[in-house]
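Table S5 (text form). Sequence records supplied for joint modeling of the three-component complex.
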Amino acid sequence: MEDLKVKEKFNWPVTILLILGLFTVLFPLYMTVIIAFKQPSEMTNDIIGLLSFPKSWSFENFAEAMRVTDFWRSLFNSFLITAVTMVISIIIHSLMGYAVARNMNTSKFYRFSYFYVVSGMFVPFAILMMPLVKQTAQLHIDNVFGVIVLYVVFYMPMNVLLYAGYLKNIPIALEEAAHVDGASTWTTYWKIIFPLMWPMHATVAVLTALGTWNDVMTPLVIMSGSGVNTLPLAQLNFQTQFGTNYNLAFASYLLALLPMLIFYLVAQKQIINGVTNGAVK
Amino acid sequence: MKSQNERRRTFLCISIPILLLFFGFNTLPLIKGFIYSFTNFRGYGSYDWVGWRNYVDLFTDSRVGNSYWFTFKLAIVATILINVVSLIMALALNAKIKFKSFFRGVYFIPNILGALVVGYIFSYIFTYILPAITHAASMLADRNWAWVAIVIVCAWQSVAMSTLIYISGLQTVPEDVYEAASLDGATGWKLFRHITFPLIMPFVTINTVLCMKNSLMVFDQIMALTKGGPAQSTESISFLIYNNGMNGGQFGFQSANAVIFFIVIVVISVLQLKFLNKREEQL
Amino acid sequence: MKRLALALIIILCMSSMAWSASRPVVIELVQYKQEALKIFDALAEKFNATHDNIKLKASSPNEPITILKTRFIRENYPDIIGIGGDMDFSNFQDAELLADVSKYPGLQKIKKAYIDIIEGLEFVPTPGTYGVPYMANAAGVLYNKDMFDEHGWKIPRTWSEFMKLCEDIKAAGILPFYFGYKDTWTTLAPWNALAVDLAPADVCQQVNMGKTTFAKEYKEIADKILAILPYGEEGPFAYGYNDACTAFARGQSAMYTIGNYAIPQILSVNPTMNIDSFVMPGSDDPDGQTLNSGVDLMFCVMANSPHKEEAYVVLDFLLDPENIQMYVDDQNSVPCQTGQFKLTPMLDGMREYIDAGKMADYQDHHYPTEMSVSAMIQTYLIEKDAAGFLARFDRDWARYNRDVIAKVQKYNASH
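The corresponding structure-token record, covering 979 residues in total, follows.
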């Protein structure tokens, strides 16, 4: 066996093809970076001019883009929405998943509830959009709070499906033992079940966060005109303003992509695992 | 007995408020949308009931028809393209290669980026860089090709996700299956066709359903790349509902469009699952 | 006890009064011209520096009409909106969102022609006036004056001269136009400019009454907008408004078929550019040309604004000749108010038409937004099928205007 491992050869042709393939991923990112650093006068229409490095690596465009898009405020809003949605989703979707998973086999009500919530996955946002705009306004939650509520509801079908599926593999005997000791269902859940579901929490957190962080449409229709921007929304809202200055625009795009890229560098493993778990389950 | 009651009460206390929340922000607007679809509401001001007129109009409106045609063309082509490319990618990334985790890390990047900003970047590439290299007109300006550009951008982002799913699929195939097969003389394409592919069929199902669903709802890419042009050739259903429903004063009419869109999505998802499940069983 | 209660009430009243006095009334103005973002910020700053009890909050968002409509759907209204004299105004007015400002004294200073224009936009005539016209625009052809002087090109007065000019420019190795048709609305600029010469001003009303068809009235316009297409950049559907402004500013084309509203954008790229304008000649009658001019910006007070008096103070400020001049200097617009204003030399070529009042409103101000006429024109310019385009125009018109036509017919029957 040992011998086999030593002899095991790397598949170099595939490796080389994969290196060449990286070009497709990195080229757009490369373009973004160099355009963001260039000055309008450096923008020419020939290939060499388009692809060459900027003359100097100055952060002027970034400073200006931050000012125009009110970067820190948008970043804060995006962060707030994503973080709060993530936490609430983990808490209430796992609870719902728990209630459903433990009663589905014995109770018609919970079986119905499960299919009712999960079938929400098929409802396209487009049909809810217009009534929701009216509804959130009537409830005076056409703001960050309303957007969070909507996200919690949008991600409920998928997350409940995930949690309920995961809980099927957690033996009920654990809870019963706690019950015998006199603990309430509520305490048992938080003390025993909730901590057991950490792998699923990570998955739910990653999927919910990726979805909310990059979403444009919900904040666009719910909060438009309120002056509150999320990071992607700021790009949309300021498109025309620097329409003639692609360099400024690209600096702003790069700034918008950066937080996620940094987060990805830090938590790459968790993100990839989370996404895989979510999809395969 | 007491503990049974306590348990039941706790579960009800948990599920009822959550169900109400779900009803309030998912089912209720769905019902309202259905009601609006029978009006000529602009979204503001007064409105009249118009019965089934909006639905009748839907089937005669060439713009709505075109948006369905475009959306389906996009969804089907993108789904096939994404699945083929990501299956190849998954096989490559699952092979005995150097820098395996590095490759997996980098190839996943497109998936975490926001579709809108990615769209803006590609818009620039299609408008300025590609024409400079190929000396051809921009794809985005040609109504026969603009949809292809959108397929490319959608694929660029989605391939990462599908690849990941296929990789985990390939990892479920036990080594000894390959060993047994190679003893029988199966190699390369044959091995893949008769051994690997059937075994990862469930993952093909997942990927097809996911891709199809996501591409049917395409919106951000359209906003960033074409805004529905040129010549209205890239108006997706979601884009049309947003644009004409919110901006164009067709709140009622586009509500009817959304109702039909909803039904279409449900029917397609159910059919897809049925069909692919059957294939799985056959294999 | 009673006295104590009384004292308490008095204190409460006074403190609440003091509180409301110390907090100025906020008037929110949302206006749709993004080109004017900076000047509105400057005007708001000036206003706030001189008024203590009213605070003006002016905003100029991207996709302004979508934002406004979304806010109306949400029943979240600003106090004043600055919009164009077009179909959106008609819809807002018809939905009873706008306040009748006929009693507002400032209206007396507005030229009657412009008030007539906005009255004409109402679906059915109403007794009130629902907007204060502020600025007019003028659309036609902007040209690079230095380039024209250098080559000795003359301003055309007829369609034939115009075509000859395009040939001459092309022969000199210069691109006559940069269109930027990726943004569909830019197709409407030459369309409207041709339409004022070639179609009756009330063609939409006539069609609504069943007296004529667009296929008949718009045929020549359709032919001529197609005729100028070959003189534009290659692949005009790849580039948007911003690209076209930039290209024209950099001297990549000699002319640009757009309105005066594009001048600030062009100058932002090339501040020293020497631009002038002329009326696009649609017909071959040298005296039969009409300038395409409409209400570019008007202010409407929202019907349910709780602060109408304060809103009028804001309007008084904006209509102050000094502030109008400030706006005109920045935006190269034509004021709707009577009085002497210094206009930009860039409109010199259109001046005689403005002074003589030989103007007509944009035809597209009567087209419903959701019909997307601009996208239809773009489609036509790509497909080049005039008969199909005009047939679709008539067909879609009947469908998208069904409710309006019904309303008009009902009104006519009862009056």
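Note: The interface with chain C takes residues 40, 42-46, 48, 57, 61-63, 127, 131, 137-138, 140-143, 227-232, 244, 246-251 of chain B (CB under 8 Å).
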